[in-house]
Amino acid sequence: MSISKSMICKGCWQHMHMPIPIRGPLSIPFKLLGIKISRMNPNLCTICETMFTKVKRRKQIIIPATIFFADLRGYTKLSQGTASEEVVGMLHKFYDECAAAVWERDGIVNKFIGDAVLAIFNFPIMRDDHVRQAVIAATELQRKCSEKKKLMMINEDGKACPVGVGVGIHTGLASIGEVGTAYKDFTIIGPVVNMASRIQGAAKPGEILVTEEVYGQVEDLFPASASCAYQLKGIENPVKAYTLRS
């Protein structure tokens, strides 16, 4: 996937109206000062990544956000008895495909958690259609991963085995900013994050599972989607979710 590249940091422009160059000759003085392209999204700078309190003048803010969790299915079982180089190579492919899909839709990759990825849409780059962008990113990820069985591992018998990806998406208000004192971490917290994680856990390999709040904003794209009530770990009442189908 070809990712569009901005010459200035989109986050700094939206939040501070400051054109911070991140590419081209004008970016050189900023790089000498330690301001570089962010690891969260190549169209952001490290001001967005490491100076949240200075930019927003608060440690935490409440925002409407869409949370995207993607996880490899069968990874733990297949990785047993598999050469470490093979495992690392497959993880790199998964991370690369996931990041590319998220970045192209103005999301950020907030964390790599073992064989899972946590992505956030609508901060620092704000979009009114962040829910749709997250869902489109998920469909692109699934398409790329299933294309020619792109994610493969060679098991202990020498057989090539495809590894599926499960995706869960939820949207709502969440708290984002710096967490911790001794070790500061930029992340997002709240029930919306927990719900997205639980929904992802219920998704089967190759599936995109979304909550009612998400489906209500993308129903026109996936009119044939089926719903089901899921009893999710840590959540008392069954949760209605949709498996997206074109």
Task: Write up what this structure looks like.
Helix 6 runs antiparallel to helix 7 (130-146). A hairpin with a 5-residue loop joins strand 6 and strand 7 (185-189). The two termini are 21 Å apart. Helices cover 34% and strands 27% of the residues. The chain has 246 residues and is an alpha+beta fold. Strands 1, 2, 3, 6, 7, 8, 9 and 10 form an eight-stranded mixed sheet that branches. A two-stranded antiparallel ribbon has the order 4-5. The relative contact order is 0.14. The mean pLDDT is 88. It has nine helices and ten strands. The chain has two domains: 10-56, no CATH class; 60-243, Alpha-Beta Plaits (2-Layer Sandwich).
List keywords for this structure.
246 residues, alpha+beta, Alpha-Beta Plaits, eight-stranded mixed β-sheet, 9 helices, 10 strands, 27% strand, globular
CATH topology grouping of the largest domain: Alpha-Beta Plaits
Q: Calculate the terminal CA-CA distance, rounded to whole Å.
A: 21 Å
Order of helices and strands: HHHHEHHEEHEEEEHEHEE
**Any guess at the CATH architecture of the largest domain?**
2-Layer Sandwich
Fraction of residues in helices?
Answer: 25-40%
Give a concise summary.
The chain is α+β, with helices and mostly antiparallel strands and 246 residues long. The chain has helices spanning 10-16, 28-32, 46-50, 52-56, 75-79, 84-104, 130-146, 191-202, 212-218; strands spanning 60-73, 108-113, 116-121, 152-154, 160-162, 164-179, 185-189, 208-211, 226-230, 239-243.
